[in-house]
């Protein structure tokens, strides 16, 4: 997605060979018109898949998911990283090791919102090692819902998550695939090459 690539080039900060900071438009401050374009792109790529719900993880997955949900006309559920006092035991839970924080934590989703018969699009901001995606897929499996595919805003193609998910036969649609962050420079994978 050209508009997203341009934004990453203009505003992304390469923190190391492994980590890209995009807190001017996705991870802290949010750019609504760009989120709208991202939502439209996800909706276009997954139209016709019969999606009934979008599942993401707080907090940075929520903005792109909301826009995709608005366009597809389906609810958006975000897995919570901390249990809320209003959440009871009626939960699906999974363990996720965080790439950026280097801690393992439980994520949870109320059983009220995911059911057998749902067709779910999983969305997240970044794909690195695929741990967040695996946690969400674990929750989907527990619920009996069907996975339509995984939509990622920025995939780091030099880390193993994308290959691991695609190797399981999962449809992964990434709007920008970063091939390298070496020498402080962002290099993208050409579109159509996976
Ligand atoms: P994974 O679970 O695929 O290893 O990592 C994905 C999660 O880690 C995303 O939800 C995202 O929050 C965070 N993450 C991974 N790599 C980066 C990165 O380079 N930059 C930022 N801002 N977040 C990242």
TrEMBL record:
One of its GO terms (cellular component) is cytoplasm. Gene3D superfamilies: 3.40.50.2020. Its EC number is 2.4.2.22. Residues 35-157 form the Phosphoribosyltransferase domain. 5-phospho-alpha-D-ribose 1-diphosphate binds at residues 128-132. SUPFAM superfamilies: PRTase-like (SSF53271). It is an enzyme of class 2 (transferase). It catalyses: XMP + diphosphate = xanthine + 5-phospho-alpha-D-ribose 1-diphosphate. Pathway: Purine metabolism; XMP biosynthesis via salvage pathway; XMP from xanthine: step 1/1. InterPro entries: PRTase-like, PRTase_dom, Pur/Pyrimidine_PRTase, Xanthine_PRibTrfase. One of its GO terms (molecular function) is xanthine phosphoribosyltransferase activity. It is found in: Cytoplasm. Keywords: Cytoplasm, Glycosyltransferase, Purine salvage, Transferase. Xanthine binds at residues 20, 27, 156. GO terms for biological process: purine ribonucleoside salvage; xanthine metabolic process; XMP salvage. Belongs to the purine/pyrimidine phosphoribosyltransferase family. Xpt subfamily. Homodimer. HAMAP family: XPRTase. Converts the preformed base xanthine, a product of nucleic acid breakdown, to xanthosine 5'-monophosphate (XMP), so it can be reused for RNA or DNA synthesis. This is Xanthine phosphoribosyltransferase. It comes from Sporosarcina luteola. The gene is xpt.
